[in-house]
Amino acid sequence: MKAAVIDQRGEMPQYRDFPDPVVHNENELLITMKAAAIKHFDKGRASGKHYSTENDKQNATVIGGDGVGVLADGTRVFALGVSGMMAEKAVIDKRKMVRLPDGIDDAAAAALPNAVAGSAMALRFRANMQSGETVLINGATGFTGKIAVQIAQHFGAKKIIVTGRNPKTLKSLLDLGATEIISTAQDDETFIKQLKDIHSHTPIDIIIDYLWGHTAELILASLKGNGSYTHKTRFVSIGSVTGDKIELSAEHLRSVDLQLSGSGLGSWTNDEVRLLLSEILPEMFQLVVDNKLKVETIKVSLSDIGNLWKMEVTDGKRLVVTI
Length: 323
Known about the structure:
Layout: E1 2-6, E2 14-17, E3 28-37, H1 40-47, E4 61-62, E5 66-70, E6 76-81, E7 89-99, H2 106-117, H3 120-126, E8 134-138, H4 143-154, E9 159-164, H5 167-172, E10 180-183, H6 188-201, E11 206-209, H7 213-223, E12 233-237, H8 250-254, E13 258-262, H9 270-289, E14 297-301, H10 305-308, E15 318-322
Helix pairs in contact: 2-4, 2-9, 6-7
């Protein structure tokens, strides 16, 4: 079969022949692949920089951890891969697949789940979001951030504040449900002042953070209290696009009612992952079919993987490899 293959961590993927994957037990199924999204997670694993690759062997492997394919009986599914998914064929765990509704195309179905995992899981399980709360999404102009805005609105957010650098994309978030925008391109003092003003009038209940780094430091500084009562804020770290480490003053923890947590592989319980596959993803797929959730993709061919791997998409769309 043809596949996107890396021989060593950190190398560029190559489109070439690779042995067909083999089913090893009764829980595994062979599927014919139709689409797989190119995500930060896939690039992190391929480079060996993602924490989930720490004990992986450095053998030739097909890239891609999930995607959309067709079972032997013709059923279309989204599934997590046992083998790499950017290939003509793949092996999946039948306990980790979701049947797709009619009306959603392969590219949208392949692009959406990672963003749902990177937003709904944090809002629902780490932040325990309730209808009527105020949500701040730090780094909302990427694909996952755009999905997070829409899911926060679907979950009943009263107010959705978004940050980002791209002014055009940032403004477009107002059409998706955001109620206030903050540019990360402005100076630190202005950024903190704007956030403090918002927080004083509409206390922020939840912060979903995709950037970490310096903007996370600024947000935490803006929450700092003065010894009087403070509103409880739940800060959930999901990504670290602008830096893996921050400086965190102990005063920022002691002076405010702050819950700091993370959402990602290893932080979710088995029950939470089961709910993602059995309830959350099916609901989100149906929202797409009902035109209540907007998913923007750029379709590319598997044969062009070597040229497209490092392509930067800056308008909040997601690259999806079609097979």
